[in-house]
Amino acid sequence: MAATRETVLFELQKVALAGGANLVSADMVRALNVENGVVRFVIEAPDAESARGLAAVEAEAERLLRALPGVDKVQIVTTAPAGARGAAAPQVTARSGAGAPPSLTIGRHPTPQAGPLPVSGVARILAIGSGKGGVGKSTLTSNLAVALARQGRRVGLLDADIYGPSQPRMLGLTGQRPKSDGQMIEPLHAYGVTVMSLGLMMKEGEAVVWRGPMLMGALQQMLNQVKWGELDVLLVDLPPGTGDVQLSLCQKAQVSGAIIVSTPQDVALIDARRAIDMFNKLKTPVLGLVENMSTYICPNCGHEAHLFGHGGVAAEAAALDLPFLGEIPLNIEVRLAGDGGAPVAAGDGPVADAFGRLAARLIAGGMA
Ligand SMILES: Nc1ncnc2c1ncn2[C@@H]1O[C@H](COP(=O)(O)OP(=O)(O)OP(=O)(O)O)[C@@H](O)[C@H]1O
């Protein structure tokens, strides 16, 4: 029997932390990915000092997961957000991956730069963020990119979700490698979208263990050493939360705005608020909110249900005086299509239409 996200989370609930909480109840598990017998996730500690004290917790989590049937490999990265109490510098430690950056030229220290710069040939950069992991930010990014391309826009997608780069899989590019002449990288293309992902520069299953400055350098390279060509819009799929990548992107590139993805539950909305706060502090305009996993329509009987509630994100947008950009239904096709490397927005049907409407709204508003 294959391990699933649910069985993994069940095991992780058994990993106790000091003070009586566990890894799941303390909301420290990020970017959980269970695929082909490999379990990967990030433990996000509140600060570097706590991160250093989590070796026993990591070991216990690894022991429990390895005992699950169908699990061949477990990769855990422990991280603490930049600037958190006790963190002299952004900290990332890893159990696997041996600490070395990828052998390719990606992942170097940043070159000095006065302030945010435009990316040559790219008219707009849109950051797609979320406060919480697993709300469908990567799914939304790939499908929105495809929907925009279908409406005639020249679209690029940069997968900067270093903890769990999923765009190569979602866009059917697994196994393909971009070519590099040592100076510039030739991006890949899928469904009319120009694609680059840090995941494409790493060996399969390799955990990213770069520290803050290294990350900043890698992101700078992704922006400036990739042959993006002429683009109307470059979508950047950010990792969940409010960490180094968000900070680096907004410091290095002239980001036109951020779109925040959330599910309707209160707990996701609380985290979404944090993400909005961060973009405000970074002086990056928040262009609006999108509700994912909104209404569930039963494929058999057409009955509509609101598994995670409905309308929470629209209400939040109104409360924060931000535009509500649209909603994407919860639909099994979205997941199957993403897992199968053929985004649902590339086809026809109600979900593809929902992404089409979102794309049209952004184009009409001059955002894409
Ligand atoms: N509207 C939807 N309907 C059904 N399944 C969805 C929907 N949106 C996303 N999913 C599924 O939910 C899971 C998480 O989505 P995704 O990886 O896009 O989230 P994320 O926010 O990018 O997560 P991470 O924290 O890993 O970056 C995936 O299996 C995806 O296929």
From TrEMBL:
Gene Ontology MF terms in the entry: 4 iron, 4 sulfur cluster binding; ATP binding; ATP hydrolysis activity; ATP-dependent FeS chaperone activity; metal ion binding
Gene3D superfamilies the record matches: P-loop containing nucleotide triphosphate hydrolases
CDD domains linked: Mrp_NBP35 (cd02037)
Entry-linked SUPFAM superfamilies: Fe-S cluster assembly (FSCA) domain-like, P-loop containing nucleoside triphosphate hydrolases
The keyword Glycoprotein is annotated on this UniProt entry: no
GO biological process, one term: iron-sulfur cluster assembly
Keywords: ATP-binding, Hydrolase, Iron, Iron-sulfur, Metal-binding, Nucleotide-binding
UniProt-annotated binding residues for ATP: 131-138
Domain MIP18 family-like, residue spans: 6-75
Family membership noted in the UniProt record: In the N-terminal section; belongs to the MIP18 family.
Subunit structure: Homodimer.
This protein's name: Iron-sulfur cluster carrier protein
Organism: Paracoccus limosus
Lineage: Bacteria, Pseudomonadati, Pseudomonadota, Alphaproteobacteria, Rhodobacterales
